[in-house]
Amino acid sequence: MDAGEVRHWNVDVNGVSIHVAEQGPADGTAVLLLHGFPELWFSWRRQMAALAARGFRALAPDLRGYGESSVPDDPAAYSIFHLVGDVVALLDHLQLTKVFVVGHDWGAQVAWLLCLFRPDRVRAVVALGVPYFPRHPRPMTEVFAAFGDGFYMTQFQEPGRAERAFARYDVATVLKKFYSIQIDNLTAPPGMEIIDFLEASPSPLPWIAEEELIQYAEKFQKSGFTGPLNYYRMAETNWRLLAPWNGAKITVPAKFIAGDKDIGVQSFGIEQYIKSGGFKSNVPELEVAIIDGHHFLQQEQAERVNSEILSYLDKFTSE
């Protein structure tokens, strides 16, 4: 089947305007694709084409704070209830009772929480890079303090701090620094900002053309980084909001895909979490695929990721 053109539209839901990119037949089985930091709907361009060619209806929004979607000023507007609420409101607008959900990085976190809060709306979930962890036993302020001031999430907590550091570089360089991550942790040396610690690849990244990087940069130049950084600034609030779901498991069928060289897999104990059975205990209907690659897997290893996603969805659509 011809994948067709990508269609773009905005819709007012949950108090914000959400931009959505859509590809594939309007009557196809819906697959919602949620991007991460610092990305846009565009990070799913290769998955959208593959899904559409197989007859799926691929829907990839710019999450609030990103791209052509609204960018609220108040950090409180980026709580997990707002983020998941946007997704539910979008599904309601589209009159989609239940969908497949695919998420990467922050989008994976939103996807997991959608499964936690509204499992009735999810047929199955595919998460890239970020697994489901139950609510941490300690407040996030204590967790960040243990990592120290150089830890990227610690630095992201203070309003304006990361923005001022990012402003020392052009937007394309900021993005390339994150896209080039291959170091074994995300903690800068004492007295250094994380954006100064990260190094941009001196050569073009093989999975993103220069004109594509410019396209990303133009959108972030317009919308800024404060919205995306506000996701991190809600960590302590989100920890409190999750109290009613303390210890809760994900009951939705799920697949986790990660790159074997993903900095998160290497630095945050994810590999041991998988091998020990802890992940499977928290997500009983779990499948795991660890493949060659780094963090921005759906762009770096598009064909392999497409194959992993499509083969998983086939289990449900061929029934």
From TrEMBL:
Enzyme Commission number(s): 3.3.2.10
GO terms of molecular function: epoxide hydrolase activity
Record-annotated AB hydrolase-1 domain positions: 30-298
Keywords assigned: Hydrolase
Pathway given in the UniProt record: Secondary metabolite biosynthesis; terpenoid biosynthesis
InterPro entries: AB_hydrolase_1, AB_hydrolase_fold, Epox_hydrolase-like
UniProt keyword Chaperone, yes or no: no
Reactions performed catalytically: an epoxide + H2O = an ethanediol; (24S)-24,25-epoxycucurbitadienol + H2O = (24R)-24,25-dihydroxycucurbitadienol
Primary enzyme class: hydrolase
Domain of life: Eukaryota
Record flagged with keyword Hydrolase: yes
Pfam family, one: Abhydrolase_1
Function per UniProt: Epoxide hydrolase involved in the biosynthesis of cucurbitacin and mogroside tetracyclic triterpene natural products (e.g. siamenoside I and mogrosides IV, V and VI). Cucurbitacins have cytotoxic properties and exhibit deterrent taste as a defense barrier against herbivores. Mogrosides are nonsugar highly oxygenated compounds used as high-intensity zero-calorie sweeteners; they also possess pharmacological properties such as regulating immunity, lowering blood sugar and lipid levels, protecting the liver, and acting as antioxidants and antitumor agents.
Similarity remark: Belongs to the AB hydrolase superfamily. Epoxide hydrolase family.
Protein name: soluble epoxide hydrolase
Gene source species: Panicum hallii var. hallii
